[in-house]
Write a structure and sequence with these properties.
By secondary structure, this protein is α/β, with parallel strands linked by helices. It has an 8-stranded mixed beta sheet, sandwiched between helices.
């Protein structure tokens, strides 16, 4: 009986998710190549993200859009769960190119969309050859003045704490001469656990928080490796500081819990 309940719960959440992936992936594949700058791919991604969040009853509190600089830049975000892609895909502006694990590229419709939209394939290993290839791809995207989003931890944090950052993004930012924008996520790990464990009765809101920090420019002096390490350390410190502030606010009961309708239109807002 327990196995049956778990199976039904899994089907209730992930069959609709797969159906939406096929539907919006098909739109991206069929219309994307014929739309200007492949904007249909971007529309499909945003709509897929937002429809998934609505189905899962996830509300987003977003602050810091006023910190985004003009021109090209890279995002560096902590990584807590599979929901991070939906949350950031629904909220961050611009035609962002993502660093995507090669295993995701192999998934039908999703992987085909990711390839068509120009996202960056990354091998999940730390060998020098794979790392150098990732840096080259990141640098190329940034040199084409396209925003890039990377999870520098390289994997999801099981305990919600910000882990060590890998160097690839920061070498690319130094070589392209672009700033890195730190992003802190809080609540996606708890929301994912809630979905998987069936603790929520099905329609209770799940709250997620996104904070965007001020852009951090690479230093102009020193060797490339020194500048990349400095940028990595400053970025991780900024992400950790914003994340700690969110955790402290949650402990104090001061985080917003009642989202307004629709997406906020200024430097901050709440999306549901």
């Amino acid at each position: 009986m327990r196995l049956l309940r778990r199976t039904l719960h899994w089907l209730r959440h992930w069959v609709p998710f797969a159906a939406r992936t096929v539907f919006y992936g098909s739109i991206s594949l069929l219309i994307g190549p014929f739309s200007k700058d492949r904007r249909a791919c971007l529309w499909a991604m945003r709509t897929w993200s937002r429809s998934g969040l609505r189905f899962l009853h996830i509300s987003i509190d977003l602050h810091g859009l006023e910190n985004l600089p003009n021109g090209c830049y890279a995002y560096a975000s902590n990584h807590q769960s599979l929901l991070d892609a939906l949350v950031l895909g629904a909220t961050l502006p611009g035609d962002i190119k993502w660093a995507v694990k090669s295993s995701l590229m192999a998934i039908p419709f999703l992987g085909w969309h990711l390839w068509l939209a120009g996202h960056v394939r990354v091998e999940k290993n730390v060998r020098k050859k794979a790392a150098a290839a990732a840096v080259r791809r990141f640098t190329q995207v940034l040199s084409e003045a396209k925003p890039l989003l990377v999870f520098p931890e390289g994997t999801r944090s099981k305990d919600g704490q910000v882990k060590a950052f890998r160097m690839g993004l920061f070498y690319a930012a130094v070589r392209a001469g672009v700033p890195v924008v730190p992003v802190a996520l809080h609540g996606t790990g708890v929301a994912m656990a809630d979905i998987e464990s069936r603790r929520s009765g099905g329609r209770d809101a799940r709250h997620v928080y996104v904070r965007i920090g001020e852009p951090l420019a690479p230093r102009q002096d020193g060797s490339e490796s020194t500048r990349a390490e400095d940028l990595r350390d400053r970025t991780r410190s900024a992400v950790m500081e914003m994340h700690r502030a969110l955790v402290a606010a949650e402990s104090a009961g001061s985080l917003p819990r009642e989202p307004t309708e629709g997406r906020g239109a200024g430097s901050h807002g709440t999306w549901s």
